[in-house]
Design a protein that fits this description.
2 domains, alpha+beta, 10 strands, Lipocalin, 34% helix
Length: 164
């Protein structure tokens, strides 16, 4: 309690001049903040202004929910092909093979449903991934493209792919 009282007494006795920052210091601080904002803006991923053509190609899965896929040479992947204006033909493999069409609108990829083979997934993680991808496409996956790295995500899961 006594220490708190001493602290408040010290704050009360501060001189106004101790709190004043010089005009040159303010200019430097504003310049540093502006440069930092510019750098961050340049590194942002392409998302809302994506077109269907930006996604064309084959991608292999490298991580699910920030956990690397153990065997990067697996056949797990996704491919996007032309299907019309902002419509994509989608097909790929997780545990099962899937195929369908999706629309891209404001950085969100959505499908009425993907057709899929219905073989049993013996690994629980693969079954979880397959279910997550189906839900993601039905509800709308947020798409981010940075270089050759494609990310599909929603509030619960994220898939990261590398372009082949």
């Amino acid at each position: 309690m006594r220490g708190l009282l001493i602290f408040f007494m010290h704050c009360y006795t501060l001189n106004y001049k101790d709190l004043v920052i010089g005009r040159e210091k303010v200019k430097k601080i504003v310049l540093i903040i502006a440069i930092a904002a510019f750098i961050v803006g340049c590194q942002m991923t392409k998302s809302t202004n994506l077109t269907a053509a930006d996604l064309y190609g084959k991608y292999h899965l490298v991580s699910f929910d920030q956990e690397a896929i153990a065997d990067a040479s697996t056949s797990m992947g996704i491919e996007f092909e032309p299907g019309g204006s902002d419509v994509l033909k989608v097909h790929g493999i997780l545990c099962n093979t899937f195929i369908g069409q999706a629309t891209l609108n404001n950085g969100q990829l959505k499908s009425d449903g993907l057709a899929s083979t219905r073989m049993a997934c013996f690994r629980q993680k693969e079954a979880t991934m397959e279910n997550a991808l189906n839900v993601m496409f039905k509800e709308g996956a947020i798409v981010k493209l940075k270089g050759d790295e494609l990310t599909l995500e929603n509030n619960n899961h994220s898939f990261v792919y590398k372009k082949q």
